C-alpha cells in the first residue's frame, strides 16, 4: 500500500532530475546561513558549481560539532518568525543541538511519516499508541502528526506509567504502537507480569536506537506484533527518514527528500553499495535548516538488490554509531552485536549492562546479564553452565573474551526511551 506512490517509487532519470533540482534549491537556501557562506568560500566552491549530482562530492561535510557551535539558532536559513517549531537533541555533553521547522517543513515531515505508516498496512481504523517522549524529542510530535494525517486514532500516551499504558492498549483496542525497542521489551515484561496478553496489538514501529534481529524476534513473539524498524535523526526532521516495508529486510530511504552517500569515516571516500560505512545525508527539502553532507555518525550500507515492494534503494539496519563503537583490546565491538547474541539465548532474561574497565593496562569487558528464571533449574552448577555458555557464544561472535555475571531477573535498569547499556569506566589513558 502506498501513501504517495509517485514519490515512493520514483527512480532512474526522473529521480536524478528531481534530486538535482532540489539540491540546487537547498544549496541556494544554505547561502542564507553565515556558516555555509564561510565554509563554501574556504572550500573554494560556489552553489552554481554543482551541475550534476556527483558534484556533491566537492562540497564540504557538516559535523554535529558545527551545529553545536551554532547554538541556538545559528543554522536557521529563515527569520525566526517563520520558524513554527523547535526541537533539540538530548546532548549528553555540552549544549544540545537545536533544530527548527517552518510550516512547510512540518508538512514535509508528516508526509514522510504518513508514507511509513501506510507502507506497512496501517491506516484509518487503526488505533495507535504513541509511547515515546512528547517533549523536545522529535519522536513524539513527529510521529503524532504523521499518524493524524493518515487518519489513525492517535493516543498520545508518551512514556512512563507502564501499567497504565498496558491498560490503555487493552481498553482502547490499540492495534499499532510506537516506542523504542527497549521500552517495548519492558512493556512486554510488565504485561506478562500482569497476566495481560495484549491481543489487539498487531504492528510495532520501533526505532530511535540500534536493535538487532534477535530483538525483533523477541518483540514479535512476546507482543504478538509484526515489528518494523524506523530510523531518523533530529537534524533530518526526526523519525521518518528511513523505514522498513512489509519485506522487513532493510529500510527505504525517501530519496526524493534525502540525498544519501556512504563514506569511509576515516578517509571521507565514497563507498559502493554493499560496503559498510558512515551514512552522510544532504536533505533536499529542508527549509528552516538546510544542511550539506551531514555526517550522521551512523554505520550502515546501501543495499544492492531491488525491493519486491517497488520502492527505492534501501539501507541496511543501522549497526550503531561510529562513536558508540567500543574498541576493546583492539577489537571493534558494537553494543548491538552483544544484544544480538544475548537475545538469541534462552538462558538470558530481559536486560543486560556492559561495563568496561582498564585493569593493569588491559581493557576488560564485564557483561551483567539477567538470567531467565525459566531456564534455571535452581541448581548452583546450572549457573556456572549458563555463564560459560553465554561467555562462549559472545566469544564466538565478538572474538573477545568477556566476563559474564548472571544477575537476578528484574535487577537491572529498565529504559522508557533510548537505552544506555554501556558504562565505559576506562577514563583517560
Ligand atoms: O531518535 C529520531 C527517532 C525517533 C527515530 C523515533 C526513530 C523513532 P535523535 O534523538 O536525534 O532522533 O537520535 C538520532 O538515533 O543518529 C541514530 O544514531 C539513532 N537511531 C535512530 N533510529 C535508529 C534505528 C531520533 N532505527 C540517532 N536504528 C541516530 C539504529 C537509530 N539507530
Structural class: alpha/beta
Biggest sheet overview? 8 strands, mixed
Tell me, rounded to a whole number, the average pLDDT: 95
CATH homology group of the largest domain = ANL, N-terminal domain
Spatial sequence of strands, sheet with the most strands? 4-3-5-6-7-8-9-13
CATH architecture of the largest domain: 3-Layer(aba) Sandwich
CATH class category name of the largest domain: Alpha Beta
Radius of gyration, in angstroms, nearest whole number = 22 Å
Low-confidence stretches: none
Fold and architecture overview:
This protein is α/β, with parallel strands linked by helices and 429 residues long. It has 2 domains: 1-321, ANL, N-terminal domain (Rossmann fold), CATH 3.40.50; 326-424, GMP Synthetase, Chain A, domain 3. Helices cover 31% and strands 24% of the residues. It has 11 helices and 20 strands. β8 (238-244) and β9 (251-253) form a beta hairpin. α9 packs across α10 (335-343). The mean pLDDT is 95. Bound molecules: 5'-O-[hydroxy(phenylacetyl)phosphoryl]adenosine. 5'-O-[hydroxy(phenylacetyl)phosphoryl]adenosine is lined by residues 89, 132, 138-139, 207-210, 229-234, 238-239, 296, 298, 318, 321.
Amino acid at each position: 500500500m502506498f501513501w504517495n506512490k509517485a514519490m515512493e517509487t520514483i527512480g532512474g532519470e526522473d529521480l536524478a532530475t528531481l534530486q538535482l533540482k532540489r539540491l540546487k534549491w537547498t544549496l541556494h537556501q544554505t547561502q542564507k546561513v553565515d556558516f555555509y557562506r564561510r565554509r563554501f568560500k574556504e572550500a573554494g566552491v560556489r552553489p552554481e558549481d554543482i551541475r550534476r549530482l556527483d558534484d556533491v562530492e566537492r562540497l564540504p561535510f557538516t559535523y554535529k560539532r558545527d551545529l553545536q557551535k551554532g547554538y541556538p539558532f545559528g543554522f536557521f536559513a529563515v527569520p525566526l518568525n517563520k520558524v513554527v517549531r523547535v526541537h533539540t537533541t538530548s546532548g549528553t555533553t555540552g549544549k544540545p543541538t537545536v533544530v527548527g521547522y517552518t510550516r512547510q517543513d512540518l508538512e514535509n515531515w508528516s508526509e514522510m511519516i504518513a508514507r511509513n505508516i501506510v507502507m506497512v498496512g496501517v491506516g484509518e481504523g487503526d488505533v495507535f499508541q504513541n509511547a515515546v517522549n512528547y517533549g523536545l524529542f522529535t519522536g513524539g510530535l513527529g510521529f503524532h502528526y504523521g499518524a493524524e494525517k493518515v487518519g489513525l486514532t492517535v493516543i498520545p500516551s508518551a512514556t512512563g506509567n507502564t501499567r497504565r499504558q498496558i491498560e490503555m492498549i487493552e481498553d482502547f483496542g490499540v492495534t499499532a504502537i510506537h516506542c523504542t525497542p527497549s521500552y517495548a521489551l519492558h512493556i512486554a515484561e510488565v504485561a506478562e507480569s500482569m497476566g495481560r496478553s495484549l491481543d489487539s496489538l498487531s504492528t510495532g514501529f520501533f526505532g530511535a536506537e540500534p536493535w538487532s534481529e534477535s530483538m525483533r524476534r523477541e518483540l514479535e513473539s512476546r507482543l504478538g506484533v509484526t515489528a518494523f524498524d524506523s530510523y531518523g535523526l533530529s537534524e533530518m526532521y526526526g523519525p521518518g527518514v528511513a523505514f522498513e516495508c512489509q519485506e522487513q529486510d532493510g529500510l527505504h530511504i525517501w530519496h526524493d527528500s534525502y540525498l544519501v552517500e556512504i563514506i569511509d569515516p576515516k578517509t571521507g571516500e565514497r563507498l559502493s553499495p554493499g560496503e559498510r560505512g558512515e551514512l552522510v545525508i544532504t536533505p533536499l527539502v529542508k527549509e528552516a535548516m538546510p544542511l550539506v553532507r551531514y555526517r550522521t555518525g551512523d554505520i550502515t550500507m546501501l543495499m544492492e538488490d531491488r525491493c519486491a515492494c517497488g520502492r527505492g534503494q534501501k539501507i541496511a539496519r543501522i549497526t550503531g554509531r561510529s562513536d558508540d563503537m567500543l574498541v576493546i583490546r583492539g577489537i571493534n565491538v558494537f553494543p548491538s552485536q552483544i544484544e544480538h547474541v544475548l537475545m538469541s539465548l534462552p538462558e538470558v532474561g530481559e536486560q543486560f549492562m556492559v561495563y568496561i574497565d582498564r585493569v593493569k593496562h588491559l581493557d576488560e569487558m564485564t557483561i551483567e546479564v539477567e538470567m531467565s528464571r525459566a531456564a534455571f533449574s535452581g541448581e548452583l552448577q546450572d549457573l556456572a553452565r549458563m555463564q560459560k555458555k553465554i561467555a562462549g557464544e559472545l566469544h564466538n561472535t565478538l572474538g573477545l573474551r568477556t566476563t559474564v555475571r548472571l544477575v537476578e531477573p528484574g535487577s537491572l535498569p529498565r529504559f522508557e526511551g533510548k537505552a544506555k547499556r554501556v558504562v565505559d569506566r576506562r577514563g583517560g589513558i
